[in-house]
Amino acid sequence: MKKVLVGLLVIMVMIIASGYTYYKMNYGGESYYVQVLVNGEREETTADDHTPMVIYHYKLDSFNSTGDKKLVKFMASHNLRNRSYLKLTYNKHKGVTNWNEVQEKEIPKPALKELQKLEN
Fold this sequence. Notes:
Blueprint lengths: L1 H26 L2 E6 L5 E6 L5 E12 L5 E8 L8 E7 L3 E8 L6 H11 L1
Antiparallel strand pairs: 1-5, 2-3, 3-4, 5-6
């Protein structure tokens, strides 16, 4: 009975570990910061159910917490607010997987310094 329980426990740990690894590889990533200084490129398209929709494409320089630069491409369902700061999750396999608007005080100093250089 103990061998069966130990075997089941090992299998459960392996499933959880592989699920975590899959999630990190596909959806996790490094945080980068951008400031929206331009309007997105508007694209009118249709969804799978044939309803019209608008997507805005952005291509911006971003900086990580140490100030390293990366050109990133991402989309939004609306034109983002000018001069807003965003925190992006960049995955090396999928590109930008997530973004959130943040306040200036939430941005690491090296990244903020580089973003302010772009503003001038």
